[in-house]
Amino acid sequence: MTTALLTHADGLLHVTPTGMPEQVARLAYIQSALEDLDVLRVDPPLANDASIALCHPQSYIDFVRSKMPTDGFAGLDRETDAETFLSPTSEGAIWRAAGGAVKAVDMVLDDEVTNAFVAMRPPGHHAEQKLPMGFCIFGNVAIAAKHALEVHGLSRVAVVDFDVHHGNGTQALLQDDPRALVVTSQQMPLWPGTGEASDRGPHGTVLNIPLAPGTDGAHAIAEYERLVLPALIKHQPELILISAGFDAHQDDPLAQLNWSVDTYSTLTDMLTKTAQTLCERRVVSVLEGGYDLDALALCARAHVQSLMKAAQ
Ligand SMILES: [Zn+2]
Fold this sequence. Notes:
- This protein is α/β, with parallel strands linked by helices.
- It has helices spanning about 25-35, 50, 60-65, 90-110, 140-150, 170-175, 215-235, 260-280, 295-310, and strands at about 5, 40, 75, 85, 115-120, 155-160, 180-185, 205-210, 240-245, 285.
- The strands form two sheets. It has an eight-stranded parallel β-sheet, sandwiched between helices. The protein has a two-stranded antiparallel ribbon with strand order 3-4.
- Helix 8 links the parallel strand 9 and strand 10.
- Helix 7 runs parallel beside helix 8 (about 260-280).
- The longest helix has 19 residues, at about 90-110.
- The mean pLDDT is about 95.
- The site of zinc ion has 7 residues, from loops.
């Protein structure tokens, strides 16, 4: 079996204003870094609105579509921090980012591939039901999790979010569904400010892991061994989804953790080994953040190489 890579040139057409860290070059660097890897390359399709509606009301989906500008940029944020934008050619990127996550679930659960990485943008883990936020418009990984539960009929899934920011959107979209375990580690304090360890969600199926600024990879891995592995074993997911943000790397400009490329290899190995024990190696990983372009490319490559090793 193999690893699928779902990526598309449309992801390069979601243009953001000059100076925004979430930029076209992020995906270009990742695509270049993965170019020579022996993976199954798959076009991420445009998501059906019905898939997106597993997490967002149709009125919000229509709102996003209605805001597509004919030129320049349209700001989507409803609050003060202006950082989530649409460009005239964003629609294909946004709908393929969600559609790729859904397609990856289909391929893994239909045994076409062992695992998959969805390299698309915009990212998704900050988007709440009706709230675009932090560069994110639709909750791609949460939509994929709901698709696995509702369409494929799984009984339990887990999302593990190692992006340096709290996966507040993923938590908001999934915490009311006790079939979904949501694990999210984040630097604290850091934007968006949520994600305290005491916040376990209404069913106790949310595991927030705050990490102090300066936390290195060894400490983070120890925390994953101490907290995440037992939570996964207790939940017994039939599919593990990863929100793969690479902004905990020591070179990232948006945060102050000190992870290395090797940290991402080790964490991915840990999760794929757990998937081997719990859920027939089924892993779907979805790109989130990562804003130092060189570090992002290296970390994404190491992450996919670890997925490939697990699929052999
Ligand atoms: Zn992030």
